Amino acid sequence: VCVCVCVMQNHQNLISMEAAEALEQGLRRWHSNYSVALNYFRRAAAGGHVGGCIFVAATFLRYAALLPAADREDPEPWVARVLARLPELHAQATGAQPDAMAQYLLGMCCVLGLGLPRQDNAQAAEWFRRAAEQGLAHGQRNLGLCYLEGTGVAPNAALAVVYLEQAAQQGHAAACSALGNCYYHAKGVEQNLAHAVRWLRRAASQGFAYAQSMLGKFYEDGVGVPQDARRAVALYHKAAEQNYAWAFFSLGDCAHRGVGMRRDRELALDLYQKAAALGLCNAENALGECYHDGDLVPAVDGARAVPWFRRAAQSKHTGGMRNLGLCLVRGEGLPRDYRMAAYWLARAAKDGDRTAIYELACLKN
């Protein structure tokens, strides 16, 4: 009997270890490839890990539009599974030996509003803080982002960098990427392109799509590294293999201009469409301009340009708002409407778009 009990216990421990590893693999891929991450989260959930349930629910609640149609599900059954296990999770997070991962997962529940009347960013930041203080890289990264964006806490870019670096030193790919971004944009630190490149490389080497795409842009433009268009294209391809919208857009731009690859108008249009299908407003505006100007397409087609401009404008893309406003002024692809034209041009002008500022002044005169 004792042997049977030991075998069962060892089997249960193995399941728990496999489930925890599956969750970790999913977290490494979340925000890079939601579909691949989802498969890992399902495996974690099947192994009994509540974190798997939380992140399956989170993926369906927040990022369903970025998943292939075959992967999408109603999130409610997953939410119900999470709610049923919240007392257990809370006990793990607040016991005599608080579990850092449980604290991090409770923070994610607060972000999603699971088990709460509404989303609670302040409580989320507090749980992330507790997990961070125990050295959990996921908690450190999320707390760093809270301070960087002023979500649930007062904005403090310098403190954000401290927490992001703690997570990055543990090899957390998303933290490495965010830290590289801070050094590039001088958020919480002085601009340092060498540091930006170093951290982005660490994230890119782990397959983090955002870092691969941003590092590709550095090589394309010669920022912090020698200019190398072919290397840029290779990095864009790696990110595009993970269905990353910006990588599709950047590859489309390279194909359009013949940078780092031969000029291919058909390929450029296809890549812009892939990026737009993933909701990237820059690609939506670019497609609108293609149809408006007759570039990459057989002929000028204002009626097909306008829906793309509208989608970009509704996502607050400055160029999309300007272009939609101009179409409304000129009656291109839709009837003239000076009132709505003024509305969209004013929004673009507020972003500093000079063409929008000039056209708006002309409308008022």
Write a brief caption for the model.
With 365 residues, this protein is mostly helical.
Describe this structure in words.
- With 365 residues, the chain is mostly helical.
- The longest helix is centred in the N-terminal third of the chain and has 28 residues, at 2-29.
- Helix 1 (2-29) runs antiparallel to helix 2 (34-46) and helix 3 crosses helix 4 (76-94).
- The model is unreliable at 1-15 (pLDDT under 50).
- It is built from 19 helices and no strands.
Order of helices and strands: HHHHHHHHHHHHHHHHHHH
Into which percent range does the helicity of residues fall? over 70%
Low-confidence stretches at least 5 residues in length (pLDDT < 50)? 1-15
Q: Give Rg in angstroms.
A: 24 Å
Distance between the termini: 92 Å
From the spread of the alpha carbons, the general shape counts as globular
Give the count of helical stretches.
Answer: 19
Quickly give the structural class.
mainly alpha
Overall pLDDT level? 93
| Secondary structure tally: strands | 0
**Can you summarize the main beta sheet?**
none
Oligomer: single chain
- Strand % is under 5%
